[in-house]
Amino acid sequence: MAPAAAAEPLEGKKRSVSPGREENETKKPNLDQGKQKKKQPKIHKRKYKAKEVDPTSPMGVLQYEIKELLQQHGLEEESISNDMSSILNDSESFNKHHRIVENAKILRLSSNGDGLTLINHPNKENGKQIALVPFGLPGDIVKIRVFKSHPLYVETDLLEVIESSPNRNDSLINCRYFGKCSGCQYQNVDYNQQLIFKKQTIENAYKYLAPILSKNDQLPSISSTEPSPLQFTYRTKLTPHFNLPYSKPVLTTPPSLGFGAKGKPAWRPQAQGGDFSVLDIEECSIGTSIINQGMKNERTKFHKEFKNYKKGATILLREDTTTLTKEETFDESKHPGSVNQETQEISKIEINIENDDSKHEKLIKTCVTDPRQIVTEYINGFTFEFSAGEFFQNNNSILPAVTNYVKNNLSIPNSLPNEPNYLVDAYCGSGLFSITCSKNVSRVIGVEVSADSVKFAERNAKTNNIENATFIVGKAEKIFGSIDTPSNRTSVILDPPRKGCDDVFLNQLSDYHPAKIVYISCNVHSQARDVDWFINKTGNGKDYYVESIKGFDFFPQTHHVESVAVELYVPRKCSATNRIIKAKDHASVQINIANVDEEGRAIAGSNTTYALAGHIRGRGEADDSLNRLAQQDGLLKNVWSYSR
Ligand SMILES: C[S@@+](CC[C@H](N)C(=O)[O-])C[C@H]1O[C@@H](n2cnc3c(N)ncnc32)[C@H](O)[C@@H]1O
User: Which residues form the active site (predicted)?
Assistant: First the structure.
């Protein structure tokens, strides 16, 4: 399938020769004929340049979605393709493509939260075009304007919703910029439905990017998405930005300061923010109150100082929390933050808390703008400090649920009481999971590429009286050089950046052969790719199966979803149970499993019961291997049983 790239409109673009000029040009007689060969004027045809796309990026995933739409509607790629050369070089063709289309029905959502529809092709009889419609919801009938063409799809602006999707409820919209701002996609969708959309995103991600596991029916059903306790005012970090024109004219009015616009939609005329590519935004309904106060302060400051800037910039707004007793007063010199431009005082919000801990009776929230300043967050009774500009999760309200879930999934099955467990936290940042999961393990080792984050991980371990954690600065694969914990007693947490893990790391992880892997990801598509590759392409991958996959809604109102996948290693000696677990028939099954010794006998005390919804495919395969064991020494009933 051709990679995605855009065709820019002809208007406003410099072109050396307009389409058809060769024919229209009046030719001068060549007086020097015979002496010198006259150079013919060159026709510079604009060429379509295909850009390489990462298959796990939204544009990469779109290629899978297009393929699926084609299959579902019995279409060939040829019938939806656009002739990019003619669109680029022929203004008639350009205008024919870039048009208004009425009554298009949104068929589904893309991974990016845009609607997808099929419209009639402007050039091909019975041909179709796949159109991306931002803010379109499945079931909507819409009027759209096509403004950009690509080889296999077009981009559009939503002009009008003619008939509403059952999922559309515009009265839920809580933001005056919704419909123009690129930040939120689902403000007009009931929250429970948003969670369903996110579950579908995870299902699709594994279908597209974990093809071997999907084909072999080796994936569990995706669990329901964990809601965020806060659905608005949850973001503890925002980064509004502004652009300045390259030509550097003396600006008399401040440029827009805010977030990127999503095309030029017209369906919500009341949406504010102006019509530039960066919208002028004064408040953000998903930001916390103090972040919004900081945004107001920094805007006022920017409006006074914008003439001093030579180029565009991004402003950091990061929430900081200080805890004080009732008697203590807030010391501004120790907690610099965004300043109210009228009063010249640091903006703060005080929250009184009622608890028995006399040390923490009020919380003071401020908004930090210096990336090097240290900020503090509190999660599940733990304190975390980190540099404002470094990575830290930015929905504090869901972190207790996520960290508990990860901790509960780290336990190694078949453990005997008092057997030591170890934890390796690859991509550990400032120690969020290392510290919140440290209680039930003998030792934790964290690795992180940012030396600054490691400095804070060490400091956070100390602050929280965690004595069993050590941290290493380096790339994730560095951990395998220094790791000395027994792999069959070690669980590994992976929480890489959006691009996921690289092959070198996954191969080393497989060679190390840990007992359990809990993979947390802000890009479920790279996670699905990595899980498929790890299980099917690495040396020991076949020893693992995916026990569960669950989404966590870190970003309500947006299309983003965080996913946690749990991979479990089944010891080879449990070959019979290994086979049972890897089998699947979508039934809800419970299995009692025990480790077996060299002779295949159950090892006392190693029994574990698994609730294995969706892991058994027909009794046949399981029964065969178990019957063989049973025949050897009548072990069947002792080793395992399953019930529905
Ligand atoms: C998504 S963050 C997770 C951080 C931490 N688990 C948390 O939740 O706060 C990914 C982290 O991986 C780090 N990182 C990026 N590439 C890395 C690599 N090759 N090896 C180790 N750490 C890396 C980044 O600096 C960042 O702190």
Answer: 522 (nucleophile), 522
C-alpha 134/C-alpha 262 separation (Å) is: 7
CA gap 590, 155 in Å, rounded: 48
Which domains are seen in the chain, by residue range?
58-167 (2.40.50.140), 188-232+395-570 (3.40.50.150), 572-643 (3.30.1230.20)
Percent of the chain whose predicted confidence (pLDDT) is above 70: 81
Phi/psi for 229 (5° steps) reads: -55, -35
pTM assigned to the model:
0.85
**Which of the residues 175, 428, 501, 522 is marked catalytic?**
522
Most informative mutation of 405, 427, 460 for ligand 1 (most atoms within 8 A of CB): 427
CA distance 362 to 351: 6
Find the 476 Cα to ligand 1 centroid distance in Å.
9
ipTM score assigned to the predicted complex: 0.99
| Rounded Cα–Cα distance for residues 430 and 457 (Å) | 4
Ligand 1 midpoint to CA 91 (Å) = 48
Nearest Cα residue to 236 out of 283, 295, 291, 294:
291
**What separation, in Å, do the N-terminal and C-terminal C-alpha atoms of the chain show?**
44
Pocket test for ligand 1, best of 390, 448, 477, 524 (most atoms within 8 A of CB): 448
| C-alpha Rg value of the chain to the nearest Å | 29
The structure tokens listed for 596 are 């077996």
β-pairing, 490-494 vs 516-521, is parallel
Please write the tens of the pLDDT for every residue from 216-275. 989 999 999 999 999 999 999 999 999 988 776 678 899 999 999 998 999 999 999 998
The answer to whether 563 and 495 have CB atoms below 8 angstroms apart is no
502 CA distance to ligand 1 middle (Å): 13
The token duo for 625 is 């291997």
**Which helix (H) or strand (E) covers residue 252, if one does?**
none
Residues 614 and 403: their CA atoms lie apart, in Å, by 25
Q: At what angle do helices 619-633 and 575-582 cross, to 10 degrees?
A: 170
Among this protein's residues, is 522 annotated catalytic? Answer: yes
CA 389 distance to own-chain centroid: 20
pLDDT digits (tens, 9 = 90+) for 254-270: 999 999 999 899 999 99
In the block, residue with structure tokens 């028939």: 585
**Among protein residues, the one whose CA lies closest to atom 11 of ligand 1:** 427
Report the candidate in 145, 18, 157, 154 with the shortest Cα–Cα distance to residue 84. Answer: 154
The b-or-e profile of 54-82 (16+ CB within 10 A means b, else e) is bebbbbbbbbbbbeebbeeeebeeebbbb
Give the whole-angstrom CA distance, residue 476 versus residue 501. 9
